[in-house]
């Protein structure tokens, strides 16, 4: 079955007339296009990646690079990539793909449904196979449940389906679209210890709001509370809440970082800030056989 026939078959099985369609997206990759009463959104099966969310009456919330790759084995630049089972580089194998292997493979579409409150729920899954065992010798099932409405909620569930314990890092690497990164403030991390990856992972303490004036790549430790992104250029605030997540990553590559990324335009760094629910470093999750873990991230937007 060719890709277009596969997309048509998925749409016949999962599409909801007037609300959700499975269509061809960038590079011919299948995506679920949602046009619900309270929000529109796009979710690619490639990486189970949300690439757009627009609550009714509000401009696009999610950043997506105009230079993104759209092909199997390559990451989509922007959206909400799922990082698993490691974050950044793999500690014991520099040849392994950055941020793990699930963001660059096609997931299965499990269900698309409309809730009574007008929200639309998209569920995708992936599990261990020969391509994942090449890098990581564990048996797992991963499910990404995306609820699209005035609020956007992602629930990432990892289950150990093997016979041995496993440990993993995870992140929902959310790229927020902003008006001007230099004017953005991230509030809610004051007095939190963090590791500054732009400064040799030195341990520091955040003072006041996070502001952006250079490459920023901070992993905030033991932080579980809400964080607010204040965007004066777009006259809005984005609130993020999370559950079962003990670290928060804040990232902007700045001009020099963007110049080294072929899939990010030279000035696109100004229009994005990443604030990421995660469990990385010392907060890595351990599961015994049969156990599962769900990390949740919830986003809402208010105009100023």
Keywords:
9-stranded antiparallel β-sheet; 23 strands; 3 helices; mainly beta; 8-stranded antiparallel β-sheet; 304 residues
Based on Cα principal axes, name the global outline: globular
Series of secondary-structure elements, N-terminal to C-terminal: HEEEEEEEHEEEEEEEEEEEEEHEEE
| Head-to-tail CA distance between termini | 49 Å
* Helix coverage percent: under 10%
Largest sheet: 9 strands, antiparallel
Tell me the total number of β-strands: 23
Strand content: 35-45%
Task: Output the radius of gyration.
Answer: 18 Å
Number of helices: 3
Q: Which secondary-structure class do the elements indicate?
A: mainly beta
| Unreliable stretches covering 5 or more consecutive residues | none
Break the fold down into its secondary structure elements and pairings.
Elements: H1 3-14, E1 20-24, E2 30-35, E3 39-44, E4 49-55, E5 82-83, E6 108-114, E7 120-127, H2 130-133, E8 140-148, E9 152-160, E10 166-168, E11 170-172, E12 175-177, E13 185-187, E14 193-196, E15 202-205, E16 210-211, E17 216-220, E18 227-231, E19 236-243, E20 247-252, H3 254-259, E21 272-279, E22 285-287, E23 292-303
Antiparallel strand pairs: 1-2, 2-3, 3-4, 5-11, 6-7, 7-8, 8-9, 9-23, 10-22, 11-21, 12-21, 13-16, 13-18, 14-15, 14-17, 17-20, 18-19, 19-23, 20-21
């Amino acid at each position: 079955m060719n890709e277009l026939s596969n997309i048509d078959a998925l749409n016949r099985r999962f599409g909801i007339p007037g609300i959700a369609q499975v269509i061809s997206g960038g590079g011919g990759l299948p995506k679920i296009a949602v046009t619900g009463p309270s929000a529109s959104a796009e979710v690619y099966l490639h990486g189970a990646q949300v690439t757009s969310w627009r609550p009714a009456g509000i401009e696009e919330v999610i950043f997506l690079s105009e230079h993104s790759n759209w092909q199997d084995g390559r990451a989509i630049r922007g959206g909400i990539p799922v990082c698993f089972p490691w974050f950044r580089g793999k500690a014991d194998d520099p040849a392994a793909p950055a941020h793990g292997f699930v963001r660059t493979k096609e997931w299965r579409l499990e269900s698309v449904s409309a809730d009574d409150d007008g929200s639309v729920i998209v569920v995708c899954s992936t599990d261990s196979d020969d391509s994942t065992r090449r890098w990581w010798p564990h048996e797992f099932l991963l499910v990404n449940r995306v609820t699209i409405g005035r609020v956007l909620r992602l629930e990432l569930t990892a289950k150990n389906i093997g016979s041995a314990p496993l440990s993993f890092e995870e992140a929902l690497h959310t790229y927020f679209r902003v008006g001007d990164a230099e004017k953005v403030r991230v509030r809610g991390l004051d007095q939190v210890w963090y590791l500054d990856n732009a400064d040799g992972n030195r341990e520091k303490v955040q003072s006041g709001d996070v502001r952006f004036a250079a490459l920023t790549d901070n992993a905030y430790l033991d932080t579980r509370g809400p964080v607010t992104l204040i965007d004066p250029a777009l006259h809005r605030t984005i609130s993020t809440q999370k559950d079962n997540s003990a670290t928060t990553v804040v990232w902007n590559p700045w001009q020099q970082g963007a110049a080294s990324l072929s899939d990010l335009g030279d000035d696109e760094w100004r229009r994005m800030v990443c604030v990421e629910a995660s469990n990385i470093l010392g907060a890595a999750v351990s599961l015994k056989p049969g156990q599962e873990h769900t990390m949740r991230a919830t986003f809402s937007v208010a105009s100023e």
